[in-house]
Amino acid sequence: MAADSGRDDFIIAIRSAFLKKGTRQNFSLLTLLIISILVLSLEYFKSGPISKLRSITKDLIFKGSFFVSAPFVYAKDQYFLFQDHLNMYEEFTVLREKNYNIEKIKNEIDFYKSENIRLKKLIDEREIASENYLIAKVLLDQQSPFLKSMIINKGYKHGIKLGVAVKDQSYYVGKIINVNLLTSRILLATDLNSKIPVIIEPNGINAILSGNGNNLYADLEFLPKLNEIEEGAIVYTSGIDGIISPAIPVGKVIINDEVKYVEFFVNYNQLKLIRVNN
Amino acid sequence: MALSFPKKVYKNFIHSFPILLLFFIAFTGLDLSFFFLNINFSFNFIYILIFFWILKKPERLGYGLVFFAGIINDVVQNFPIGVSSINYLLLCSIALFIRSRTLVPSLMYDWAFFVVAILIVSSIHYSILTLIFDIPIRYGALMFNSVLTFLVYPLLSKLFYQIYIIDLRQENAK
Questions:
Q1: For each of chain B's 174 residues, which pLDDT tens digit applies?
Q2: Which CATH number fits the domain that encloses residue B127?
Q3: Best label site of A126, B28, B82, B87, fewest CB within 10 Å?
Q4: Which residues of A touch B97 (CB under 8 A)?
Q5: How far is CA A147 from the centre of its chain?
Q6: Domains of chain A, first to last
């Protein structure tokens, strides 16, 4: 008898949780759960009107998100500006002590560039990567432990293509993983799911750069067991995948407890404008 | 007696505090994560918010609005659209079930049920992402996030409780 009433209470509680609308509620939870499952099932449509609608919805939400987070972005910018001011004198002293001969280095680079073009012609290598780029503004900087991405204000209307590299000046930032009508999402090289083929110079060792959620450095995977990589070696994109342009500088190797990491050249906290290859 | 404009704004703010906070977090993708000893600490703020307010005052969070907050969160976090809505609505239903079965509410009971709720919701969330959408997931990191969400619950619920009391006082003063 007591067991029966207990079971009845349990069923009533479940029914009231799922089916009862409750005060000031327009829908029951069950109705909304069914709608959610239907919305989720629409993810299978990757093209056509549903995809266009999804793209417009995303654009609208990104714009809304941009306005909502504007005060916080402003506060963050001010914080980094203040930090820059604090570090200015130190940086100035370091730069003054370095003996730069920029003109000489520039001439050397020009020589190597022209030599490289000549040699490529000799071996009949075709340029896969494009040198054209678009400048885009960062709308949203989404940096949670599980997702390191950015939303930019250029979409397929502006000619952005899926998978292409994104740079800050000449340094690698990430690649485009999602293109909407007016906005796109960049997966940063720091993201847990980011895997990019790289080449470590001067030895020319190939490896995979794998993000670990940290904004300062990333892991190197699939390195040869016997390698002579030294601290400070420069890591470039290798372009083996045929989508990301080769020779984009990513960072330099740092060694900690005999484990090799790549310290990024880009400061991921202060990205405002970026270049997208197209 | 008619209320002055600032008082009206304050009253409305307290009244709609849970829904404003929910949409604010969904739009900004705020997760309050920080690095300590090279470990990333983060917790799911929205789970705590929904669970607490559905237990205390479900009418403050409209289910339809919770559904929309889930859609926004999915777009901002780059999840398949609809996943977070399912999670939040499931959390709502678990909280409602606990609410209807609890005679004397206490923080300890709520806390204990919260861990059950987030384990169910997280399992469903990860199952959808891995089995249906084939999205790679680091279970260790996500489990750590769930544990931290559970640990932070009493602290945030104390904070929300103060707001709940202010709201209750304003309602009773009518």
A1: 567 878 888 888 888 889 999 999 888 877 666 666 666 677 888 999 999 999 888 888 888 899 999 999 989 888 888 899 999 999 998 998 888 887 778 888 889 999 999 999 988 888 888 888 777 766 777 788 888 888 989 999 999 999 999 988 887 876
A2: 1.10.1760
A3: A126
A4: 13-14, 17
A5: 9
A6: 46-278 (2.40.10.350)
